[in-house]
Structures are given as C-alpha cells and as structure tokens.
Amino acid sequence: MTAPYARSDEPELVQLLTPEGERREHPDYAFDLDDDAIKGFYHDLVMTRRIDTEAFMLQRQGELGIWASLLGQEAAQIGSGRALRKQDYVFPTYREHGVAWCRGVDPLALIGLFRGVDHGNWDPAEFGFHLYTIVIGAQTLHATGYAMGVQRDGLVGTNDAERDTAVVAYLGDGATSQGDVNEAFIFSTVFNAPVVFFIQNNQWAISEPIEKQSRIPLYRRASGFGFPGVRVDGNDVLATYAVTKAALQQARDGGGPVLVEAFTYRMGAHTTNDDPTRYRLTDELEHWKLKDPLARVKAYLVRNGLADEAFFEQVEADADTLAEHLRSSTRAMPDPDPAKIFDLVYQEQTPELVEQKEWFVKYHASFAAQAEVH
Ligand SMILES: Cc1ncc(C[n+]2csc(CCOP(=O)(O)OP(=O)(O)O)c2C)c(N)n1
Asked: Which residues form the Dehydrogenase E1 component domain (predicted)?
C-alpha cells in the first residue's frame, strides 16, 4: 500500500509557494494580491494556530469538554476563508476555526461551544457562517439546499460583485464516504447550484486512512457527478486562496458547483479524546512537519526581505495578547441557565413545550432544595 503522503507530489497539485518559501506560477491560478496581503495572511495563520493551541491547553486543564484541533490545516482555512466575499455563506464542520476567524466570529464563541456552555453563540446570518455541524457530511446537504435558495432569489450570475453569492461547504476526506455528500453532489450539479465543496483531505477520518475511503484522488470524484474538481496544496495559503477564489467566482457566475480538494495533513489528534500514536507512524508526521503552512510563508517573507524581526515580534505579541484574553475569558464564562435550551431550539413555544419547561425548571430547582435539607 502506498503511504498517503506519497501522492502529494502528483503533478495535478496546484502549488504557488513551495515548502522552502519559493513562489511558483500556475497557468490557471494566479495569485493576484501583493506582499502586504501575504503578511496579513501570515498574521491570520499565527493567530489561528494560537487559538488552536490555547484551546487545546484549556481542554487539558479541564476547562473544555473536548477540542477539535486544526493544527496543520491553517493554510487551507485561511486561504479559502480570505477568498470569500461578505455575502457568501459558509457551512462548516467542527474544525473550521480558521474560517471562523476570517468571517469575524469571536474565537470565544467557538470555545464556549466546546466548553458546553452554549450551542454555538454566534449569529450565522451576521457572519455568513453557519453553526458547526458534528454529523459528518450533513452540512453538504444544508449548503446545497441553501445554494438552491440563493439561486432562486436571483443572487447568482447577475454580474453584480456586491450581489452574486456563493455557498461553501467544508468537509473532510472521511465525509466523502457518506451518502449525504454523494446526494449533495448530485443535487448541486443537476440544479447548477452555486456551491463550492471544500474538502480538507487531512489523510485521516479519525483512525481510518484515506486509502480506505477512496481508490482515486478525491478531486477526481467530481467528474463522475458532472462538475469540475481541483486538487490544491492545502498547506500553501497562496494556492488555496487562488483556487478557492476561482471556484467561488465560477459558482457566483452561475457556473454551478466546484469541488476543491485541499491536500493537507492533520498534525494533531482527531480531537482531544483521541491518541493518533495508536494508528499512525511518526515518520508520517515528521514528513508533513517539513510542509508546515506557517513556516513556508515566513520563509518567503524572510528570504525576500519583506518582513523584519520587528514584524514577527509584533505578530507573536498579538498572539500572546489573544491567548491571554482567551484564557481569562474562558474561566470567567458563566454556567448557562439550563432552561435556556427550551428558548433556543424551537421557533415557537407550543403549550406542550411550555409545560415541559415548567416541569424541568421545578425539577432542576429540587436539587438546590435537597442540598439545603442535607
Ligand atoms: C454521521 C456520523 N457518523 C459518524 C460520526 C463520528 N465521527 C466523528 S468525526 C469522524 C471522522 C470524520 O473524518 P473526516 O470527514 O475526514 O473529517 P476530519 O475530522 O478528519 O476533519 C467520525 C466518523 C459522526 N460524527 N457523524
């Protein structure tokens, strides 16, 4: 069996920045931003990694119930997230902390979800960023349905850059084995829905390797459904930006769905509940460390004299400030009102729900009364 990482050298992989920090050109995908934008991407990458490592440590200290780390996947998320326009709409999984950062969602809202004090405390409509979906692949159907709605609202192919809208569904390699995802592919292509399926192929679905999910590279699956697919170096923030930007534009222009496979690697555990040393070899991780998405942008900036020591120090200082804010604010989060679940789940309160809520409030209060007696 071929090691998963051997495939990353396939010629179809779109790459604009090598692991050594050298720029590459691609005939179909040009990077059209300047070096200041690349410095901005570097800032995003470092901040996102720090949110991730901080949340991981908070989980280890017992402050969070669980955390799904994005370590290694920062470039896939920042590149694609920065390619979005304000009016676009994102359906994430549970690992899209970098995309959330690009959409302006407060990282504390993500942390609150994993602490179990709320159900996702951000307004999806405000940020164009849906709540996290834990059910593998389900969000691809939500995204397809939403995209069909966008199309029917006349928000596709009008040539108005402020108006034309694309929808993105993020998913993992393992999710492509789900029926939901295959149904979403069929619906989106036959209805020409403006949706981009952004697969972060991080090589593992918990302990199942990509070899057990597919006999062919994932991006080629799209052609079987009748829409285009492209594989991009998911550790290259410039390439993920350029490829996603083109895919989003095709969707907004009325060209239908596109599948983007970001070829990347999950450097950490699946979640904080999991031990990857039980199923994967250390040399695989060591191989991918050489492709680190942050190191290659830093190498580019340094080797071209575009950023000095003061710039990197400032980025680290910003990350330290954010980390301190996340730590202290997480510990200060109040416990939720248990009855709140009744207010948030349903649009309308039926008499039965009102009755259930009253019973639940009394039942819950009985514990406090018992504690006073004893
Ligand atoms: C429908 C469903 N089946 C199983 C699970 C349990 N589960 C949680 S994460 C996961 C693996 C997902 O792998 P992948 O799609 O590659 O995404 P990744 O976590 O690697 O980003 C599974 C099977 C689930 N959450 N939902």
From this structure: 46-325
Exposure b/e, 307-340, CB count within 10 A at least 16 = b: beeeeeeebeeebeebbeebbeebeeeeeeeeee
pLDDT digits (tens, 9 = 90+) for 293-323: 999 999 999 999 999 999 999 999 999 999 9
3-state secondary structure of 307: coil
Token pair belonging to 335: 């416990």
Question: For residues 109 and 122, is the Cβ–Cβ distance under 8 A?
Answer: yes
Please, what is the average pLDDT of the chain?
95
Q: Where are the alpha helices (DSSP H) in the chain?
A: 35-60, 74-82, 97-103, 107-115, 124-127, 138-152, 179-190, 221-225, 237-252, 282-289, 293-303, 309-331, 340-345, 351-373
- Annotated catalytic, 221? no
Ligand 1, residue 271: give the atom nearest the CA.
19
* pLDDT reported for residue 29: 97
Ligand 1 pocket, residue 134 CB under 6 Å: yes
Annotated active-site residue 279? The verdict is: yes
266 given a catalytic annotation: yes
pLDDT in tens, 72-118: 999 999 999 999 999 999 999 999 999 999 999 999 999 999 999 98
Short-list 86, 88, 100, 123, CA closest to 47: 100
Which CA distances in Å does 289 have to 148, 292, 344?
40, 5, 43
